[in-house]
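Supplementary notes for students who missed Thursday's class. We covered one full example, reproduced here. Read the sequence, then the structure, then the short commentary at the end.
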Amino acid sequence: MSFTSLNPATGKYLGTFEHWSEGQLEQALTRAHRSAGEWAATPVVDRCEAVRAAGQVLKERRDTLAEIISLEMGKLIVEARAEVDKCVTACDYYADHGPGFLADDFMASDAGRSFLAYEPLGPVLAVMPWNFPFWQVMRFAAPALVGGNVALLKHASNVPQCALALEEVFREAGLRDGIFTTLMIGSGEVKGVIEDRRVRAVTLTGSEAAGRAVGSVAGAQLKKTVLELGGSDPFVVLADADLALATEIGLTSRLINAGQSCIAAKRFIVVESVADAFVESLLSAVGRYRCGDPLNEATTLAPLARKDLRDDLHDQVRRSIGQGARPVLGCVPEEGEGAYYPVSILDGVRPDMTAAREELFGPVIPIIRVRDEAEAIRVANDTNFGLGGSVWTADIGRGERVARQIQAGAVFVNGLVKSDPRLPFGGIKDSGYGRELSYLGLHEFLNIKTVWIR
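Structure (token representation):
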């Protein structure tokens, strides 16, 4: 058994990578377990500088790593470079703020002195997806390592080169073996790793089904989990919105990474009085998005990561049309070897249709028309997901009021929903639980110990 790397833009073979034996996996878990105590005892400032060094390696190898991302998962080269840059930012952020985030927190009590101490748990398993193959890993790894944990990465099977490149980044940064380890295993072995007593916690970014599977196994072992799952983010356009701005940011949000983002705008919920104008604005602007070679900097729309993902997306589009949605643009896969799908617009989508009920992981824009603000809020919340969302209005007070009523882990008013190392990131409902990033993400995988002294 092995892992095969394919270029989604051409369908061409890139390489084959060895699937580990049981013995190799055991050796890796043993190394991680042995390294955990030593790394936890390493002074915080030294751990921070090690993570900063990883960021420096990323910066120095930016173009090479970005090309690996583009070749293996199809991301536009300009977006791949930006992804590497964002990883550098996360490394620097936690290196700068780690000592403060981990300092003892003194609290008043009946003791002579009482405080909270923040201590690592040990080896943490990260099950990561392919859509942001570097950023998803680094936003876990940077805080986990600064916190004194060691990291075990089980990456998506279609990005083995990215997975191995990440391990090499940490090795070049000077981290000893066992502190960051890429596990070359399949999904079938994840259960056994979670059940291993040496693994102390699990984080997963992926589908709802994967989250339920990982969460149930970890729960049976009484192990801490953080789950960041799918999303069907509402993009709420109210009657007083700046339509030009909403169009510009809406297209960016929907089409970044070819629409393969959990926090992409997924449901465009538009007040009826401006819906026709908004759709026309979209149609006048989408012409600049053209499918092409992701390594060509002039290309504006990348392929999907795999052909089966494109087929799944098209099936969702066909079912939505069969339910009464109107295809306004696109809605037919591009011909050729690559896994390309054009920018597509579905108008007249109802909340009960596939395009509204399921997550569309690709460049498809569903338009849901509503009467007013109240119906917009109701439709926005009529979903099993709750990751992100945005509200578009000229009235900032109104935007904040609506944002407070939308059920999601993050809501942006007149802005692109995005992750930022300074802000906590995560969802509610079927979008998962727990938080990444900010000081909260660092504390997720720590023992917050109360110390009481007479």
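Commentary. The first strand starts at residue 2 and ends at 6. The chain has two domains: 2-229+429-453, 233-413. If anything here is unclear, bring it to office hours.
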